[in-house]
Amino acid sequence: MILVTGGAGFIGGNFVLDWLAESDEAIVNLDALTYAGNLETLATLDGDRRHIFVHGDIRDRTLLDRLLATHRPRAIIHFAAESHVDRSIHGPEEFIRTNIEGTFILLEAARAYWDGLDAADRAAFRFHHVSTDEVYGSLAADDPPFTESHPNKPNSPYSASKAASDHLVRAWFHTYGLPVLTTHCSNNYGPFHFPEKLIPLTIVRALAGQPLPVYGDGMNVRDWLYVGDHCAAIRTTLERGTPGETYNIGGWNEQTNIDIVRAVCALLDELRPDPAGPRARLIGFVTDRPGHDRRYAIDARKIERELGWRPAETFATGIRKTVEWYLENPGWVANVQSGAYRDWVSRQYGASA
Ligand code: NAD
Ligand code: DAU
């Protein structure tokens, strides 16, 4: 049994689905169901006894102690976070509360539980912290990609809060010996991605014939990875990673934002032509994000060399799967936008859920 936090979000949800498709090892899934958490992502697991969903907060130490004592997981995979840079600019407090304080409380609960295990279980236990490439800061056009030894230079409240949580995780390894793993992944895309982030936002708005906002000059660069490849990298790291080490995960796929938006428009035009004309007509340049990092790029050679992980999807195959998924799942999109899924949660788990 493993304990996953944030498993109703984009990456955590994909991780839970992929894990249970490949293994019979059960998952306790702890998620606070913030605006970004959506149980409909996990609807195919309804009635599956291998998936135990717990609606709760990683800052609830009593709940954490009870879950750990009851389910006795061999690993914790920590996805739960506030994850959207723009929201962190408008309201940083929740990022400090969940990403820093929440990770601290989870680490303390994990340490107390781990301290009580017998020697073999202590040695096998893992705390896997899911972090981001944004902690490294921004690259100039001709800088080499981020390696694991790149200094931390976070620039947004989001990335600063993630960097702070990384440091806590590191300290719990060095001070207490808690067997931690930290992975730093680049931008993910794929099914179940909340339509506040660039790719799903572009798909959803383009289908609705709405303007497609591109920040600044559209020349900021991100390194895009299909979410299923990120989930596979986490499974590989959990299985073969060395405690205390950090691993970068990326797709070797740097692209400017404007190219991403144009690629999505072209795919939509191919798969569902718009009688009004090519969707690229909807693209508009808008005021830039404050402190907008210019370029991220991941050097993923360490995880490739030491753990044997490589992405299975190219951008061409991954973005096609993604666009097709959004075309086939308009109900999921409508529900996350309307908030109807929250009503479903109250019906399913009671008014206090
Ligand atoms: P997301 O915002 O889609 O999901 C976050 C999940 O965490 C939601 O289900 C939410 O309900 C839950 N959550 C938030 N606060 C909580 C709390 N206090 N207690 C319990 N649950 C809580 O995020 P995502 O994009 O799936 O990212 C998951 C993790 O991966 C994050 O740690 C993020 O920093 C990291 N990451 C994301 C990307 C990316 O491109 N999305 C890339 C690299 C790393
Ligand atoms: O690099 C990993 C990070 O990727 C994760 O740690 C974050 O959780 C995740 O949200 C993502 O952060 P970004 O800020 O890179 O993702 P976002 O989709 O918000 O933006 C991608 C790029 O697109 C960025 O340069 C800003 C730009 N953008 C975004 C939006 C929402 C636009 O031009 N227009 C938009 O409307």
CATH H level of the domain at 2-193 and 224-253 and 296-312: which superfamily? NAD(P)-binding Rossmann-like Domain
What is the molecular shape? Answer: globular
Give the count of helical stretches: 13
Structural class: alpha/beta
Which sheet architecture does the biggest sheet show? 7 strands, parallel
Instruction: Outline the low-pLDDT stretches.
Output: none
Describe this entry's structure for a reader.
It is globular and about 65 Å long. It has helices at residues 10-22, 61-71, 85-90, 93-115, 119-124, 157-176, 198-207, 227-240, 257-271, 301-307, 315-328, 330-338, 340-349; strands spanning 2-5, 27-31, 51-55, 75-78, 126-132, 180-185, 188-189, 212-215, 221-223, 225-226, 246-249, 254-256, 283-286. It has a domain at 2-193 and 224-253 and 296-312: 3-Layer(aba) Sandwich (Rossmann fold). The mean pLDDT is 95. 44% of the residues are buried. It contains 13 helices and 13 strands.
Task: Summarize the entry for a quick read.
The protein is an alpha/beta fold. The chain has helices at about 10-20, 60-70, 85-90, 95-115, 120-125, 155-175, 200-205, 225-240, 255-270, 300-305, 315-330, 330-340, 340-350; strands at about 1-5, 25-30, 50-55, 75-80, 125-130, 180-185, 190, 210-215, 220-225, 225, 245-250, 255, 285. Bound molecules: nicotinamide-adenine-dinucleotide and 2'deoxy-thymidine-5'-diphospho-alpha-D-glucose (DAU).
